[in-house]
Design goal:
single chain; alpha+beta; Ribosomal Protein S5, domain 2; Alpha-Beta Plaits; 7 strands; 29% strand; elongated
Length: 167
């Protein structure tokens, strides 16, 4: 809703919106007749199979009454035009992990992390070796864990942090 607050114009008659995040969706008509604004916006998002998307359509009343059909076309059409011009970015869910390994494995581990597209968030050096926090695509976690076990002969440990669940 932070995006909504940044996009909505409080001086406008209506700031109608819809979002879809991880197969959960919501929409709001913001005072327009029920189903005439938020649902058409949501239909454009769902029709394109998009996730992690919110659209806010702002309308200033100009004295012309559009009727329910006109509102549906206006809100849905505006959402469609926005999506036509937007850059669609492929997004993969990521999980945060804690990885610990011996200094002697540093070169091989860093190579694996690069190979699996893992993002290093922090790195600490201690008496027992290296410990790091990283983010990796959820669908690549198991393969990374297996590869780490293989190169370290089971000595490297990688575990999801609380709240991150590998699929």
């Amino acid at each position: 809703m932070a995006f909504y607050e940044s996009a909505a114009d409080l001086q406008a008659s209506h700031n109608c919106w819809a979002w879809r995040i991880e197969h959960i969706h919501r929409s709001n008509d913001d005072g327009e007749p029920s189903g005439s604004a938020g649902r058409p916006i949501l239909a454009m998002i769902e029709g394109r199979g998009l996730e992690q998307v919110m659209i806010v359509v702002t309308r200033y009343f100009g004295g012309i009454k559009l009727g329910i059909g006109g509102l549906v076309r206006a809100y849905g059409g505006c959402a469609a035009k926005c999506l036509d011009q937007a850059e669609i970015v492929e997004w993969q869910p990521r999980i945060e992990c804690r990885l610990s390994f011996d200094f002697s494995l540093a070169s091989m581990v860093h190579g694996l992390l690069e190979q699996y597209g893992a993002e290093k968030l922090s790195e600490e050096f201690g008496e027992r070796g290296v410990s790091m926090t990283l983010a990796v695509e959820k669908n690549r976690f198991k393969a990374l864990k297996t590869s780490l076990a293989d190169i370290s002969r089971g000595q490297a440990e990688i575990n999801p942090l609380a709240g991150s669940f590998p699929g």
